[in-house]
Amino acid sequence: MYKKFVVIFFILLFNNIFSQNPDKQIQSVVNKIYNFNFSKASTELDNFSEKYPNDHRAYYYKSLMNLWFYLGSLDEAYKDSFEVCSDRAREILEKQNNEEKSEAVKKLFWLGMIDYNSSVASARANDFASAIIHLKNMRNRLEEAVSIEPEFYDAYLPLGLSNFAFAEVPAALKWAANLVGFNSDRELGLQYLQLVSDKGNILKTDAQFYLSQIYSRVIIEHQEADKILTKLTKNFPKNLLFNYSAAWIKYELNDLSSSEKIFRNILASDGKNFSYIVSNSHLFLANIFFARELYDSALVQYQSFREKRINNDYLGFSNFRTAICYELLGNRNQAVKFFERSDEGNTDLDEDIYAEKFGKIFISKPISEDFKIVLNSRNLIKQKKFSEAEEILISIITDKKYSNKVKSESYQLLSEISLNKKNYEAALDYASQSFKFNNSNDNTITAFSSYKAALALVNLNKSSEAIKFLDRIEELYDFDFQTSLKNKAYSLRRKILKATD
Fold it and tell me: Cβ distance 397 to 407 under 8 Å?
């Protein structure tokens, strides 16, 4: 009797597992992919393709995994595998003759997604001509899909991303986009992403992640990004990309302890296919130690970053910070060696541009006492030790031995502290004093003080005055961290305009 019961139980269990419809089986695989359980997902996709040889989705999701591996490691073998699986998925789709409207829309959607993923792979390989062609094909397919079925919400995600991406494309590439009739609308792109985040099905998680990235890096709303990423990491705790992004936003919010904990967890995990995330986790740990003025520990992490990096992104900045660490630890000779290498980074990145500029200066002369005291104040602010930083900065502005330039920087930092304390009148006053002492008309000081003044004015309900300061930032060029500050200025202007609509 017992044996009969066991046999019946296993028959029922077997039938329950394998009688799932294909959609449920694919969703189970997708959840494993999002949670970085790639081995199990791959096995299940193999089984799925055997059971449903005319279903493109097994090959599509295999291609997606290989795309992620390629983006995370820049290993060309993964790119090759991505292309093979994408081609197979495309072949299966193109053989389908769907007369039903809903099936025709799904076919357009999946072909559009293959084109979108191919554009990402091409762009990462610096083949921008191919990337634009794929994007054009994607747009044609998905615009047709939503014209047939406007409530097929998932189709709006790649359309939104392409709108947003081409609004941000460098001027040197805009001619290519214009050549194939590419129009871009950043606000429309954001609306599409929000739509899929709220109502999507297949791409809902993707939309939420992309939305978090835009809130993190373009429309600077770090608290909103933090909310999204907290939810994503809860749902998919082993996803290194979600965790890395969550740690990055914690760092931006000056929550160094939480940030450090997540980065350490990333480094303790199996990230063999995601070298970029692993190496940059070392870089951010180094930055955290640097902010705490634990320079020996920072040096170890900067070295780990250099050894494990997959390209030159942030290499110049890492070398520059390494040089600063050595200088502050009293090793000038070693510092000079790394100042000389501060130009090895990616000159499209704010941090590497900054490193190259100041690395050249510090090769020939040691860092000044002015630089050291301002750096110390910045580090205290990063640690949220506002009272200690404020005490140092007030001592600078009241001491005649310090130059007007250092006093101007100090007033700017006092404005930042006041903004953190929500003392907006004081923040505005300190920003005004920063302008007054900026006798050299340093564009960086002007730009950052203008932003702080604008932020204070918005909180004082003086938006029209704030716009004038944002206009000033827009007119300025050639200042440090230009891309990130102009994004912050854009975000603030956007809030003002939305409030007045």
Answer: yes
pLDDT > 80? residue 265:
yes
On whether the 274-384 domain is CATH 2.40.50.180, my answer is no
Provide the CATH topology of domain 30-237. 1.25.40
Q: Mean pLDDT check: name the lowest of 6-10, 33-37, 56-60, 85-89.
A: 6-10
Q: What pLDDT is recorded for position 16?
A: 44
CA 318/CA 280 separation, integer angstroms: 10
Residue 157 neighbours by CB under 8 Å, 6+ apart: 192, 193, 196, 200, 203, 206, 207, 210
Torsion of CA 346, 348, 350, 356, to 10 degrees: 50
Burial of 225 (0-12, 13-18, 19+ CB in 10 A): buried
Residue with tokens 């630089």: 371
Residue 185 DSSP one-character state:
-
Predicted TM-score (pTM) of the model is 0.90
Mean of per-residue pLDDT scores for the chain = 91
Average pLDDT over residues 427-454: 95
Within 19-100, residue ranges assigned H as helices are 22-34, 38-51, 57-73, 76-94
Specify whether domain 400-501 bears CATH 2.60.40: no
Whole-number Å distance between alpha carbons of 371 and 405: 11
